[in-house]
Amino acid sequence: MARCFITRTLPGASIDRLTAAGHQLDIWPERMPPTPAELVSRTAEAEGLLCMLTDEIDAGLLDSAPDLKVVSNMAVGCDNIDLIACRERGIDVGNTPGVLTDATADLTLSLMLALARRLPEGMSSVRSGEWKTWSPDFLLGMELRDRTLGIIGTGRIGSAVSARAIAFGMEVVESGRPDGPTPGLPLAELLAQADIVSLHCPLTEETRWLVDAEFLSKMQSHALLINTSRGQVVDQIALATALSSGTIAGAALDVTDPEPLPSDDPILMAPNLIVTPHLGSATNRTREAMASIAVDNLLAGLEGRPLPHPVT
Ligand code: DGY
In this predicted structure, what is the pLDDT of residue 13? Predict the structure, then answer.
């Protein structure tokens, strides 16, 4: 029997498996995440921590939790966790890959279509009464067929987006690394060719602010940018400038820096921008599956077994 801190109420019934195993659970009951201080104090005596991407797991927190054996993140992205500090302390880290691939790819296509076909403008023109009649030139957008999609980050989600884009009749080009499994296109060539660029890379030191003024200047002026990965992959000040100056035609962000954005954040003033509240994995089925994998990882770590989904 081990003490566990679970930083949010989990969807579905996975929590029952922890109770059945006899573990002593402290479940954060609020809708808002624990503050850093609350996270430290509630984790201090825990052997297991099941956390969310909103929880910052840093060396200071680990130092004040000497019994901690396992950190199970209910997310595939683990940029909220200091992985090196965990490894140095022999703490296992798990994540929830695979089960959110389709939901995130669906959301990516939703954003692409909404932006390309100008749905937010259409909806607000109906609500405001600006729309008076059907007309040949009202709110004309871009069709996906025969357009080129540039995918940056060709893991599971990037590949699922690619399959959907091909079904829509798009050409797909992928960025690659010369040392990667498939070389892909050099970034500058991808940006020169793509009508839509979609980001699916993890947030690492290499990808932080990958999309900066120089990146945006290499995109075509009619091109659209979609980000469903992590907010910090995009330099939002550079993006706001690129949208206002017409360097690119539009952007859709499901992830921002910070989350949520303050209501007066300059990026929200930029034209042709869709922002959604980190909905990539937000379906009942996916969130229940993520919770279930997070519990699997937690149970394995507490029992000293290899995690089913370890982050290395
Ligand atoms: C993840 O799991 O990393 C996603 O961003 C959650 O939606």
Answer: 95
Global pTM value? 0.96
State pLDDT tens for residues 176-195: 765 555 679 999 999 999 99
Closest protein CA for atom 3 of ligand 1: 77
Known catalytic residues are 230, 259, 278
Which residue has the least CA distance to atom 2 on ligand 1?
A: 75
User: Ligand 1, closest atom to CA 95?
Assistant: 2
The angle that helices 101-116 and 284-302 make with each other, rounded to 10 degrees, is: 150
State which residues form the domain around 228. 101-275
Q: Which residue carries 């040392």 as its tokens?
A: 179
Which one of 256, 281, 286, 297 would you pick to mutate in the ligand 1 pocket, going by the greatest count of ligand atoms within 8 A of its CB? 281
List % helix, strand, coil for the chain (3-state, nearest 5).
Answer: 35, 15, 50
Q: Do residues 81 and 28 both lie within one domain?
A: yes
Picking from 256, 266, 217, the residue whose alpha carbon sits closest to that of residue 233 is: 256
**Residue 96: both structure tokens together:** 């929830």
Residue 237 identity (one-letter amino acid): I
Residue 68 falls inside a structural domain? yes
CATH of the domain at 259: 3.40.50.720
Asked if 235 contacts 213 with a C-beta cutoff of 8 angstroms, the reply is yes
Instruction: Let me know: does 263 contact 83? Beta carbons within 8 Å.
Output: no
Which residues are paired to 211 by β-bridges? 234
Quote the CA–CA distance of 153 and 122 in Å, as a whole number: 31
CA 243 – ligand 1 centroid, Å: 26
Q: Based on the fold, state whether residues 69 and 125 are members of the same structural domain.
A: no
